[in-house]
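If you are new to this repository, start here. Below is one unmodified record pulled from the training split, so you can see the exact layout before writing a loader.
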Amino acid sequence: MAEGTGPQGFAQPAQLWAGHGEVLRVQGVRVSVLAGDVRLRTGTAGTTGADGGAASGAGQDAGAAELRLEAGAATTAVLRLDVPLGDAVGYWHPSSGWERHLTADWASRWRTVGLAGSAPLGCLYDAAGRSLLAFAADRLAATTWIRFGLAEDTARFGVWLAVDLRAGESCRVLLQPSGLPFAAAARALAGALAGPDALPVPEAGRVPAYSTWYSMHRDVNAADVEAEAKLAAAAGCGLLLLDDGWQLHADGTGYSGSGDWTPDPAKFPDFAAHVAAVQGAGLRYMAWIAPLLIGERTAAHREFAHLAPHAIPRLRCRVLDPRLAAARRIAADACVDLVRRYGLDGLKIDFLDLAMAYAESDAGAAGRDDGTGAGGGASAESGTGAATAAGGAGAGPDDVDDVGIGLRLLMTEVRDRLRELRGDELLVELRQPYAGPGMLAFGNLLRAADCPADATANRVRTLDLGLLATSGAVHSDMLMWDAAASPQTAARQLHSALFATPQISVRLASLTEDQQAMTGFWLGFWRDHRDVLTRGEIVAGRPDQLHQAVTARLGERAVVAFHAEQALARVPAADLAEIALVNSTAASHVVLDVEGPGTTVRLDAFDACGRPAGSHTRTLGPGPDAIAVPPSGLCVVRPVSPEELPC
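And here is the target side for that same chain:
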């Protein structure tokens, strides 16, 4: 989300809470139009959104209400949704980051969201994790301004949305009924917004992957990558992602070498042969590209700088303006040529969020608020000259005025041309914050933003993504750990990615014997429980408590991961054929709160490396029971029939 001054005349709380305009009461929410030549009415599902996106309403929950803003003339409409404070304890949105608490209206600010920056969706929730106000707008591409906060004088919480509409255009806003579990409300909204044209996910996108970023950074070469690829395949990975560093001039400061997208001949003398060698080892091959960046050391910079007015001096590059048709053509050609020339299976497309700088000229906003930490801080660069491209955005016959619309046109061309080459086997990775419902048509691997060795952040971000990814495979940020770390410490990095597809990024050839055993054990556990972990129903608790205990259930199998020593998980043990308890703490036990009758079970424990750590039979529940599980270890719980009990 970019932040700034927002719609003119709505900077102060008194203006935000003004009582004028049309008012409706829907799903317990007070709905007010504060500005704009618009008509507010309830609508019907299945209508194309204000920005012409794919919001079809096909996945809409039957209990959701729909509002429609219809413009009588070109206007900026400002809509307020507000509810009594009640038992509210936090507010979640797709780019929450660590900001999951209640914000005062006077401490809030306008934020821009669009195709490359989050999504117009949010949920106010109570102490039990139930939604009090859950909304989503169908403007998944075009820029929307959002603000939210609590009025201390009236104890009401408000959400404000501002949208630019042309004459005759409409904008749909969905409201979920209150009382739903927070996660269920968010998933239903994301499902209602996602269109039917999601990019298919091949099997290679749903198996563990190996990334070169944290393991090698830019010090990559054909021999080292091929050696690691063989070890990764043996460990059960099915995909290799070659990250930044493969291209010519990648040894420079920042991204000064981005833009020409020519393999460095010193590192990869025959890039096509190298790709084929990795594929021959049993891995699909993806390469990193940042198609909007043109670095100062490249021929692209000399030729196309006029199409990239936004400069980032610290990173020594400029950002192509996707509102301009000529800029989109350059970026799309770079992606397609790379796949075609070298036989790649897909691309890791990075730094699309930097295009949100051009929302400044759309919105009059300034600065960046990247709550997810995407791009390792690079996205926080405000840069210079973002407002006007040569000739002005929208000046050419195929230019557009909104950066989100421009990005959608770019990604549509990239997707269509790449699918001509790779069909349904195409792999495209996108990362937070541009991994919301609007991007499901363009990417099928949705990755958590960079959080090196931060297991908490990886857990939180992958679970956040899982709420939005009604299709596609959620991937963790790359997993790394200290080469001298204990297997218990290293295992917690793998635990952070349990409910997503893990990407490993350590030098496999340098792992200690214990780390090798640990990695193999937990990757094997993930593969054996993949459907439960990635397709099951997930209960993860309140967002502000950072999901200390997470349960996934599919059929008669469940996995419970404990990420805090005081965490407790409620499970109907008598209804399940297997419960896998993952102790991602330094404690020697976990606490299971057994719902329903007590049940006799067999407990098989394993340490962090998968070595047996004891087996016995006991009766669990009803109520809380402490169960011995080694630190960073596993305990598998299975019911025991009376015939199996010892005499």
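Two things worth knowing about this chain: The mean pLDDT is 90. Residues 403-422 form the longest helix (20 residues).
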